[in-house]
Design a protein that fits this description.
3 domains; 3-stranded antiparallel sheet
Length: 675
């Protein structure tokens, strides 16, 4: 744990210094969290490049850390040191003097940090009986990520080849797993490396999202509410929980401590709580989303601040130059997304392309941003698409209603997101109403000259201008929702959630603004605000609690699978090619070695045509007349026979007994086909 923590701090230190290149006025906590994300993106990219040329060793990883820390030279400039000291003083000032407000502010972050520790601690459980997961939706995703991590750490998989489908480019965004593998090479356990990385990125997302919403709305309370809505997202599943309680024999707390199922993801509910179905399972998103929000915040600042600032000519020129440099750098940052989370890059493309036409007067900033993105993203995309087995034609098709199945469209979205959409519509009305009021107040001030009215006039004009810009900025997120409900953007339609989650994030500020506005009204509306918050988060809280309570323990690898994997690591070459059953939890996953093919569900979701190879695998295991020819055709070096093969395939073990046994543990046996 200590090793992983130190390495995260090193990454964060380099990233924090880079924030001074594109963020002028941000608190130190934001810089630390943004530094973690920015540092991770650049460290992962540097590691990838160095490993492709020189191998994935302690030397190359150490060099990547050194390069990642090199931006600290920015503090050689007095101006940057002054900014850092000022940020430090402000941060200390927020902690000095005990007040209720400061206590609640501190408690807010402590609550989420503790929640993240206990939640992500359940992602991977190492026990004497094998490897388990305590997350209901992580059963298939965990072994996939472990396969990627160990292929880097133990398989020397550079340039990365798909460990689940040998001889094809590894086009899945693997950067988060690559960083975990780097920690393992320095002696961290896979469990500790994943836990520290997940918790630090989740907490960074909390702070970055809070700041983004504050920048959009100008309300600190709204900023605090938005992450609560994200991390406890859900629909009306809590009503089904209450139904289970009333119809069951258990007491309320007995049921709460022994929740039998999830209430945000099932045959009825497809939206899923973000922590349960996305951040613990799709590790690329937990790095990709905070990175994307950092970029979106900078786009918003250019989009909005340029309308409100009034400078002299000299100051305007200086500010324009600063904006161009910041836009270029933030473009470089966005350009790392193809290897981090490609759907996030698609979202940024849609949002920035839409806003480009609304602010053509900022052409220089857009060009700088586009150049920055292209410098990094285009080579990454070319590399990923060259030699990939993924068929892009599988990713786009007409498909109405996302994953609604037989449900009606409106009922589906109501049950899955609850009152989120009704509050969103009310929020848009409320914002327009506040804008209208601001305009009326502005007219009134033309007839009044007292200081108090003038102050109110300035506030109303600012509010009016902000709401107009805010609503324009939100328009592309409507487009994301519209397209995701008309078109399938992946072979498996449920994967549209990787785009839909950004529709949700894009309109979190509006819904959080409604709750904050209600809270700032009279006592009755305060109660309404609390009630709405409970309805919005109850289902998600149930699913998060189910994971944290420790009642879920799904075995993925038994102790013999772990034992035989350790033998494989010691007795076979790092790039050895294995034949195993096309399942997600083959013991080969833990060895870091390549498989001819693994789980067909994963391969199908990546648009890979595996049919012919799957037939060859079955024929080899049956030991028919063509088995030996097929072994030579695919260059198989080792064959695994275990309970997984015997339960999923017709296995003729007598055919393989003529080959020497390379590793053995319990019912697991590895036959060496080639010497």
């Amino acid at each position: 744990m200590f090793t992983s923590f130190v390495l995260i701090l090193l990454i964060t230190a380099g990233g924090l210094s880079l924030t001074y290149l594109f963020a002028e006025d941000e608190p130190l906590l934001w810089r630390v969290c943004a530094g973690n994300v920015v540092g991770s993106a650049f460290f992962g990219l540097i590691c990838f490049l160095l490993a492709c040329f020189f191998g994935f060793s302690i030397v190359t990883i150490s060099l990547a850390f050194f390069i990642c820390l090199s931006p600290l030279v920015l503090f050689a400039k007095e101006m940057n040191r002054v900014k850092l000291r000022a940020d430090w003083r402000k941060a200390k000032g927020k902690l000095e003097g005990a007040t209720t407000k400061k206590f609640l502010w501190f408690g807010y972050y402590v609550f989420f940090f503790v929640l993240f520790v206990f939640f992500f601690e359940r992602a991977l459980l190492e026990t004497p009986n094998g490897i388990f997961t305590g997350a209901s939706q992580n059963f298939g995703d965990l072994p996939f990520h472990l396969g990627a991590i160990f292929s880097f750490a133990d398989g020397g998989n550079f340039p990365p080849e798909n460990p689940s489908y040998a001889f094809a480019k590894f086009s899945y965004p693997f950067m988060a797993d690559l960083i975990t593998a780097a920690f393992i090479k320095f002696g961290a356990s896979v469990r500790d490396a994943m836990l520290v990385q997940n918790v630090s990125l989740a907490f960074s997302l909390l702070v970055i999202l809070e700041r983004f919403v504050f920048k959009l709305t100008g309300s600190r309370l709204t900023g605090k509410i938005a992450p609560v809505l994200l991390f406890f997202s859900g629909g009306l599943g809590f009503l089904w929980f209450l139904k289970d309680y009333w119809q069951g024999a258990q007491s309320f707390f007995d049921l709460l401590w022994n929740l039998p199922k999830d209430y945000t993801i099932s045959e009825t509910f497809r939206w899923g709580n973000s922590l349960v179905v996305l951040f613990i399972t799709q590790r690329s998103l937990i790095l990709g989303m905070p990175l994307t929000i950092i970029v979106l915040q900078k786009i918003w600042e250019i989009f909005y601040d340029a309308e409100t600032r009034r400078h002299g000519d000299t100051e305007k020129n200086r500010q324009a130059s600063t904006d161009i440099i910041a836009s270029f750098f933030i473009g470089l940052l966005a350009g790392t997304l193809p290897l981090i989370h490609v759907h996030s890059l698609v979202v940024l493309f849609v949002v920035s392309a839409f806003l480009f036409f609304l602010r053509l007067d900022k052409l220089r900033e857009w060009i700088a941003f586009g150049i920055g993105v292209s410098i990094v993203a285009v080579p990454e995309l070319v590399w990923a698409m060259t030699g990939s087995a993924t068929r892009l034609t599988e990713f786009v098709a007409w498909h109405f209603g996302w994953d609604k199945r037989d449900a009606s469209f409106f009922w589906f979205w109501l049950t899955n997101t609850g009152i989120f959409i009704p509050l969103l519509l009310f929020g848009i009305y409320l914002i327009f109403n506040l804008k209208t009021r601001s305009a009326k107040n502005d007219d009134a001030t033309l007839r009044q000259r007292d200081d108090e009215t003038s102050l109110r006039r300035g506030h109303d004009i600012a509010l009016s201008r902000r709401t107009v810009s805010w609503l324009l900025f939100s328009l592309p997120f409507f487009l994301l929702f519209f397209v995701s409900n008309l078109v399938k953007l992946a072979p498996w339609e449920w994967d549209n959630i990787k785009v839909l989650i950004y529709w949700f994030v894009g309109f979190l500020p509006v819904v959080a603004f409604v709750l904050a506005w209600l809270w700032n009204q009279d006592r009755i509306l305060k109660i309404v605000a609390v009630g709405c918050l409970i309805v919005l988060t109850a289902s998600g809280a149930l699913d998060v609690w189910r994971t944290m309570s420790g009642k879920i323990n799904y075995k993925i690898f038994d102790k013999d699978a772990v034992a035989v994997a350790e033998q494989i690591k010691r007795r076979t070459a790092p790039n050895a090619l294995f034949l195993n059953a096309p399942t997600f939890n083959s013991a080969v996953v833990l060895s870091g070695r390549r498989s001819l093919m693994r789980y067909t569900g994963h391969l199908a979701s990546y648009g890979i045509d595996f049919g012919e190879r799957e037939m060859d695998v079955k024929r080899i295991y049956t030991g028919d007349a063509a088995a030996e020819v097929l072994l030579n055709k695919h260059g198989i070096e080792y064959v695994l026979i275990s309970p997984e093969e015997k339960s999923n395939l017709p296995v003729n073990e007598e055919f393989f007994e003529r080959f020497p046994v390379a590793a053995e543990a319990g019912q697991y046996r590895v036959y060496q086909i080639k010497k």
